[in-house]
Amino acid sequence: MNTKTINQANNADLRGSWQALQRAAQRARELAAQTGTELIVSRGGVIERIKPQPTSAQQQVHESAAPYGDKS
Fold first, then answer.
1. How many CA atoms does the CB half-sphere of 1 hold within 13 Å?
2. Using one digit for the tens of pLDDT, what is the confidence trace for 32-46?
3. What's the distance, Cα to Cα, between the start and end of the chain in Å?
């Protein structure tokens, strides 16, 4: 069994995966708050519905545009 933490992984993608998951979760909470949608989570094997609280502009995730198809 590997006892290293994810931050010690040899692969750069694995090292950055935790932060990516946290950003995705934050973005899901923001979107749910904007649309009035409940989040469905599992805690300890129990399914829960969570009504997200509206976030302020400072707490929102800011994503830069991906350079897809950029031929500059």
1. 2
2. 988 889 999 999 999
3. 46
